[in-house]
Automatic annotation (TrEMBL):
Protein name (Swiss-Prot/TrEMBL): XisI protein
Alphabetized InterPro entries for the sequence: Restrct_endonuc-II-like (IPR011335), tRNA_endonuc-like_dom_sf (IPR011856), XisI (IPR014968), XisI-like_sf (IPR035943)
Organism: Candidatus Viridilinea mediisalina
Pfam families: XisI
GO molecular function annotation: nucleic acid binding
Amino acid sequence: MEREQPEIKLGDNKVYIDIFASRTIITAYRENERIAVEVKGFTGPSEMETLELRNHIIEVLSDEAKTIPLGEDDLEVALITDSIHDHYQILYLGWQGPHRTYTPFIHVRIVADKAYIERDGTEDGIATRLEARGVSRSQIVLAFHPPFKRPLTDYAVA
C-alpha cells in the first residue's frame, strides 16, 4: 500500500512532505546556497541541537587549549575531539624531567544532548564558558560531582 504524501505549493514549485520519514534533517536551497533544515520531532534529542552543542564544546576547548601555559618542560597540550563518540578532551602530554606526563585537564562528553563535564581543571569553569555561548544550564551536567550532590547545583542532574 502506498502512503499519500501531503503536497504544499510554493510559488511554481510543489513540495511533498513525508510525515513518516525517519531522518529529521533535510536539505533545501536558499537562493544559491544549500542549507540544512530540521524537522522538529518530539521523540528525542534534536540532531541540530546536538550539533550545536558539539560545536560549542569544541570552540570552548579550542580557545582554552590556546591559553594554557606550558613552562620550560617538554610538554604539549593535546586537544582531542571525537565527534563520533562525543568525547572532547584537553591533555597535557610529554616529559617533566625524567617523568612522563599524561594528564587529562578537561574532559567533556555529550550524553542525551547534554554536556557532561567529567573533568574541569580550569579556575573559572568550562560550564561558565558554555553558558556564555548560549548553552543552557539544563544542558550542562557537572559530572565530576557525585549524583547525590548534583541537585545542589544550578545545573542539570543527569
